[in-house]
Amino acid sequence: xxxxxxxxxxxxxxLGSDLLAQERIMLNGVxxxxxxxxxxxHILNLSSRQGTISGFDGEFRISAAxxxxxxxxxxxxxxxxxxxxxxxxxxxxxKIELKPKIEELSEIELKGHDLDGLxxxxxxxxxxxxxxxxxxxxxxxxxxxxxxxxxNYVVPSANILNLxxxxxxxxxxxxxxxxxxxxxxRQAPANLRKELGDDVFVSQMGIPKTHIEPFIRYCQKKKxxxxxxxxxxxxxxxxxxxxxxxxIRERLN
Length: 253
Fold this sequence. Notes:
The chain is α+β, with helices and mostly antiparallel strands. It has helices spanning 4-22, 86-91, 119-129, 160-196, 198-205, 212-218, 224-229, 233-252; strands spanning 25-33, 36-37, 42-45, 50-53, 59-64, 69-74, 77-83, 93-97.
């Protein structure tokens, strides 16, 4: 019994110190961008793996301890990482400013002969954009197609030009969207690393700096690149945390 007692005392002291180090305090805060309060922003405590969402007035509450990492993310804003220090815990209040993402519009091609799909308007435009076509060739006034109130106001099967144009537009749009998605997936590992910051991977997950992007690609078996492109960052972070031990065991040991 005399031998066991010092061991129990040591364990009690060690556990007590650990509990004090891990004690978390409830923090209140508000999230804004250019003085506009932001609702529906995801807040995740990366250390405790607990999260919440800001309310309609931008306010939120989350528990945290010293050295915990808080992640703030929204689809239209750059992700912000914050390491909690003693000053934050003393104030028990956070005021977060997020920077909006500036999206560049894809290049589009405008042509003078684009059609509206209204036959009586499009045939008039064709007279200006197709000089080789005579007025008589596109004059359907005798058939009533020029008058929207006419019972004959229908798009005839001969309007192949309009159909081909619509199909072409749809195909070009599909190709542009496909190419854009491929480009986003190629850039996803680098963008994810930049958004979270190397310190999150190195300090919080134990992944060496040279292994960060290989680790992200390793987690693609859980579809994290697809999730990241879809803006589901919270799910991506959860997968990274769950897979870090497997990666370290398989690739680093």
